[in-house]
Amino acid sequence: MTTLTEPPVATAAAEHGSREPGRRKPTASDLVVVLAVLAVVALGLTTDRFVTVANAKAIVTSASLVGIAALGLTLVMIGGSAVSLAISQTVAAVGMIFLSAQSLGLVPALVLAIVGGAAITALQGAVVGYAAANPVVLTIAASFAITGIATGVSGGSSVSASGRGYDHLNATPGGLALSVYVLIALVVVVEWVLRRTRFGRTLYLVGENRPAARAAGMAVGRTTAVAWAIAGALFAVTAAFTAAFNTSANVNLGGTLTFDAIAAVLAGGTPISGGRGSAVRTLAGAVLIAAVSDILLLRGYSTGVQVMVKGLIVLFVVVIVHVRTKGRHA
Amino acid sequence: MTSSPSSARIGDVLVRVDGLVRTYGSTRAVRGASFDVQAGEIHALCGHNGAGKSTVVKMLSGQESPDAGTIHLAGRLVDLGSRQAAQRGGVALVDQELSVVPALTVMENLMLGDPQVGWLDRRRTAARRFRPVLDDLGLGHLRLDQPLTDLGIGERQLVEIARALGQQARLVILDEPTATLSDVESAHVYSAVRKVAASGCSVLFVSHRLGEVLELCDTVTVMRDGDVVATTSTADLTVESLIVQMLGELPERPDRRLDQDTESEVLARIDGLSVPGRVDGMSMTLHAGRVHAVAGQLGSGASEVLRALAGLEPGASGSAVVDGCPVHLGHPSGAARAGIAFASNDRKSEGLFLDKPIAWNLLATRLGHLTRLGVIRGGRWSSSLARLVALCGLDPKRSGHSVGSLSGGNQQKVFVGRSLGRDDVRVLLLDDPTRGVDVGGRAAIHALLRDAADSGMAVLFASTELEELLDLADVVTTMHQGKVVGRHAGRTSGALLLREMTHGSAADEPSAPAEQPPGRAEKREVHA
């Protein structure tokens, strides 16, 4: 009887019926992706000094700091809370904590930094998760609060290290920056957490359909808060490396990290609407942006062009992801 | 009314619907509907769910084109190809769903989509036109520049009605306008409708509330299975004769073994459950091994009872106890901990994770049992999955496919299957369990629910469909306007259920003719 008055449901179901994952015909968007990858490869191959070990090291090193923060943001995005706009500020504040705690030794300073970053960010995540606050608005407010407190406590001046322990973070075992090894290890761990744990599964479900997860009695608030806490810990790792590299930290330590991290996650093809994405994708996004910037640098383009191309990459990937998602539903 | 554009005299035929046919796929939703509506007449369109009245309304308001048949307005053959064409032809519609924009002001909402609002001096003209309409609807206290967010849901509905009335229409269609309104608000609607009719317009009034139909309307056209059964003057009708017209031969349910086995264990007790404006002190007991139903039309509170138990009505009060443990109302995870599982009537936005695989959806709520220290155990995952897929009768080869790729019936199986085959779910709540599901899928889902009850759960579903209520439920509780009307165990008749759902009990409305309900139903009144 219900079917009589509800034809739209039946048609919608029929539209979904033809979908068969795994074996689908190549579409126009596939072609565009292949061409784009070929174009980047061709550009790289024809660029002087691009295909060298030294250059490859430079690329992964420059991708590593943004990459670690972007991993954290990946969790936030998969969980359906869009983005945090307070990454730079969190990194700056945590970097100041890290350097001023050097007198305690490297490990206690690291622990302090990670706990601090996790706590600051988890607090925002809890408000987003339990009270359904808008993450964009909330993190804009949080970014000002964090900068305000950091400026107040530091008196507006740079914090310098109270010990020499941090220098271990600038090590280059095997000729490669330590942050690269840390990034790779963290990608493996985060990917495993996403795929193999209860938390990971729940995060994908919450991100895909929050009202459904809520109605099913799943722990929406807790899952969101935990995702943000892990994100904050990863921001803190980036902060420690950045502060160690700079040997001093002020409220501008984070630089343009917020948007660099967002760009890396988006360039990896993770949709901002949540429910999908992975650590490996984000790694690919970070490396892609670093590689293209490197090509432009080697070819002698100005910083302005590099920044603009970064924006174009994000735009390109977002449009492609959007087209492909729509394609699966049509 | 300031405007009376209709040149037709009261009593002339204003709308003539002749032989309308509309088919959706293989389903003939309307198979030859004919009736006349006179100028100045309030004409009711009644029928049970799926009778075809919504489709007729859609064809009259330009949302659907008839496959065959004609519509005449004031003697002229019209082609209502779109909502705009229907509006130009003088047909105004107040839809079931609220279609006002909360962010806009009252006046902006009134002017939305109104072809007669000019570009110059629009505010003054609009104010002149709409002020009297609002006053008639009892909205005299509203300012035209007030944003709609300030208004309650009932007032928003009245604004929507004002928009239709202010469009200087010749035919105003109201599709269940009072379903979600309070009595006072409904009374405002009635008086406005009377004024509109007195000015020479025709009103087509679609309603499930038979009492108001008999009270307000001059004539009733009853539809059943896509056909018009009869068009009768309300003077010659009673609630019972109207129900007979709506149902045809009266369905009666077969004997239930419940008659022999009345001693089953009480699993859950609900006491004085209230949701402000929706449910008023609802009490019931749920027995292990039984399928229970709350029957009630939109606005009766049946759906809200389920939502409150599932923790999705933050304002809910009262007590619910499952298996001796009180349920913390107002939070879904509290309900889940108490052993309550809920399947919403909105499968897409509040039910399934459509982009995710069938496997993920089936196992979404039992991840705790499939993990050790938070890590998923592959063996348990796949054995649970295999068991559930078999239980629900799904294709095991497709468990990696997204749920969105399934038919409505199979989606619903996944949705229900999520709560089956586990010890920690004691009470299974389903709101309209077979919405958007075809006949074959219905039978399969009914079988699943029966199995769930047999395994020792208490199943409680909300529905308005008599067949489903009679086929599936062991115990039916009927609701009307937020209150329990009757409770029926064992044999009952569709006519009695429909009477209680559409009209309440005779005691509720003194104006209703006090007649004995037909059928051999056993009925126990509930002291709520």
TrEMBL record, chain A:
Domain of life of the organism encoding this protein: Bacteria
Subcellular location: Cell membrane
InterPro entries (alphabetical): ABC_transp_permease
Region annotation Disordered: where it falls in the sequence: 1-25
Keywords for the protein's UniProt record, in alphabetical order: Cell inner membrane, Cell membrane, Membrane, Transmembrane, Transmembrane helix, Transport
Molecular-function GO terms, alphabetical: transmembrane transporter activity
Membrane topology: Multi-pass membrane protein
TM stretches of this protein: 31-51, 63-87, 93-115, 127-154, 174-194, 225-245, 307-325
GO cellular component terms given for this protein: plasma membrane
Name this polypeptide is given: ABC transporter permease
From TrEMBL, chain B:
Name of the protein described by the UniProt record: Sugar ABC transporter ATP-binding protein
Keyword Transport among record annotations: yes
CDD domains for the chain: ABC_Carb_Monos_I, ABC_Carb_Monos_II
ABC transporter domain sequence ranges: 15-250, 262-506
InterPro entries: AAA+_ATPase, ABC_carbohydrate_import_ATPase, ABC_transporter-like_ATP-bd, ABC_transporter-like_CS, P-loop_NTPase
PANTHER family given in the database record: CARBOHYDRATE TRANSPORT ATP-BINDING PROTEIN MG119-RELATED, GALACTOFURANOSE TRANSPORTER ATP-BINDING PROTEIN YTFR
Organism superkingdom: Bacteria
MF terms (GO), sorted A to Z: ATP binding; ATP hydrolysis activity
UniProt keyword Cytoplasm present: no
Region (Disordered), start-end ranges: 502-528
Keywords, alphabetical: ATP-binding, Nucleotide-binding, Repeat, Transport
Lineage per the UniProt record: Bacteria, Bacillati, Actinomycetota, Actinomycetes, Propionibacteriales
